[in-house]
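Hi V.,

You were right to ask for the full record rather than a summary. Here it is.
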Amino acid sequence: MQSFRYLESAYAIPDAKAAAYRDAWDYLAGPGSWWTGAQRIAIAEATRAAVECPLCQQRAAALSPYTIDGEHTPAAGTSADAPLLPARFVDAVHRIRTDPARLTGPWVDSLIDHEFGYGHYVELISVIATLISIDSFHEVLGIPLEPLPAARPGFPDRYRPPGAAIDVAWVPMIYPQNLTDAEADIYFGSAQTGNVIRALSLVPEAVRKLHSVSAVQYLPTPQIMDMSASGSLSLTRPQTELVAARTSALNDCFY
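Predicted structure:
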């Protein structure tokens, strides 16, 4: 059965939005650069489980989240005998989902070792952000969350852009002048791009999916700096930016 049919919605949902969401679901289900499809779906399941996690709620209310230990609410179907995600990455998913404003660079560095690198972390962020964007849309409409797709088999490609390096962020990123042919499209040929986009550039496909979802929920990336552009939205650009600014403030986004 086709996903994102929106039969329960009281509002007409543009075909382009449903198509972008189906594409995002396909992205989540397959192997990426660093995680398998099964692991990526496990990340998505953990993201949803974090919303009702008592440990996360206790940490969010604490002066410091690092002073409270415990066990997170497991995602449905999680096997204690053969978990798909190492415990520190389950914890990372829950922290990113429920208390992102208090993450730190040293905490990110603590996740990294010879087996799990910055690429794993950036791809983790991509899966979480993709899911939250689409789930939030459903929550606003008051309709059930879309069931997660079945994972597809396959292996991560382990591609790491050669031009990626740590500069102003906690993870390696790519400047436009350091793109190679394999990821040359991710900034649409622009000589300058925002760090919010560069943040995912260690995993080029994550940037592509960010553009795809953003185009139907906000604006196509090439139009963002054009203050007269409103994309396919029925809101005017000033109205759109007011909503975006208020949402950012409620989410403690320093941008």
